[in-house]
Amino acid sequence: KQWYQRRVAITAGQFAAIRTACYTRLTLFLIHKLFCFQTKSILQINLFGNTTFLFAISASILSLFGLIYVPFLQTIFQTEALAFDDIIMLVCLSSSVLIVDEVFKLLLRVFGGDKKLTANTSEDTKHLIP
Question: How do the pLDDT tens digits run along the chain, 130 residues long?
């Protein structure tokens, strides 16, 4: 058989690990994406200025780790614990959207693209919370 015709047998334990990694990656990606809605760079905003935004991100991260590491939630959501190096790899992968957005904002500021990005405004994450 050709390499593309081979079927990979995935056990139930491997499927749970794959499901957990996908859920973790998606959740971390969305958390990083929240910071991309800023017109300023993440290095220019006051990250601790909006406590509601910090509470929402903290609750998301705590619920994510609850689904991964709390035994009765693992049973309900059919997840399994991930190793530390897996978590680090998923954080690095999901932060790619934030890195690309920050480079894009830098290029816009350097080459004078969007005037809103070069303006010195006092916006922070407050516009993200209704």
Answer: 454 555 666 666 688 888 899 999 999 999 888 878 777 777 777 778 888 888 999 999 999 999 999 999 999 998 999 999 999 999 999 998 889 888 888 888 888 765 554 444 445 545 545 4
pTM passes above 0.90: no
Contacts with 14 (C-beta within 8 Å, 6 or more apart), sequence order: none
